[in-house]
Amino acid sequence: MSMQLVLASGSPRRKELLAYLGVDFVVRIPQVDESVRSREIPELYVQRVASAKAAAIGGDVVLGADTCVVLDGQIYGKPSDLEHAEAMLWELSGKVHTVITGITVQTKDLLLCEVVTTRVEFVSLDQSLVDWYLNLDESSDKAGAYALQGAGSSLVKAIDGSHSNVIGLPLVETATLLTQAGVTLRSSPDSNKL
Fold first, then answer.
1. Strands 96-106 and 74-76, how do they pair?
2. Which tens digit of pLDDT belongs to each residue from 86-98?
3. What's the pLDDT score for residue 193?
């Protein structure tokens, strides 16, 4: 009997990335508190939230992930509104920030965790570019208020590290953890049609 893989995330980007690995999975959306604790280190924050997401969902093999943007030690989650998104974009403008994702794979007998870090350099923004991007309504549910897989890629000058990590699920590390948990990866053309 094969084990069912559960993706503990409502993110369409994570669903799409996980499908690239050729695994069958179901999506269940966990209800967890994603607020940052006082003086919490970013790497520990994403790992704690990823593990909480996996623990909140039952299943044979559960994959939880959480991503944040970090600049000068400050954690940037999802913006609360457009004004907040604009403030985030201006703070990232012309600087190098870090995108950190925590991944947890949990089974009845196993708990596997990994943290992946990618450095991202933003272009220097001007008001017309910020206004254009905000009007696309792409920033509302994205850590750091931008989406690399969308028009937000035009805001990024360089990436040092995992590209899929910046989108929300580092595929190399995810594949490794799933394999360690006994999930078979395959490349079937009709697996998980989106």
1. unpaired
2. 999 999 999 999 9
3. 40
CATH of 5-180, one of 3.90.25.10, 3.90.950.10, 3.40.50.720, 3.20.20.140: 3.90.950.10
Question: What pLDDT digit, counting tens, does each position of 27-64 carry?
Answer: 999 999 999 998 999 999 999 999 999 999 989 999 99
pTM: 0.90
Q: Give the active site residue among 66, 109, 131, 141.
A: 66
193, two tokens: 């049609």
Q: Assign 191 a pLDDT band (cuts: 50, 70, 90).
A: very low
Rounded alpha-carbon distances, angstroms, from residue 21 to 14, 93, 164, 191: 11, 33, 12, 9
Token representation of residue 151: 């028009």
Residue carrying the six token digits 């450095």: 119
The proportion of the chain whose per-residue pLDDT surpasses 70, expressed as a percent, equals 95
Q: Domain coordinates of the chain in residue numbers? A: 5-180
Whether 110 contacts 179, CB under 8 Å: no
Our CA angle for 41, 104, 25, nearest 5°, is: 145
E strand segments, the chain: 5-7, 25-27, 61-71, 74-76, 96-106, 111-122, 156-160
Instruction: Name the residue among 78, 63, 58 with its Cα closest to residue 147.
Output: 78
Decide if 109 is catalytic: no
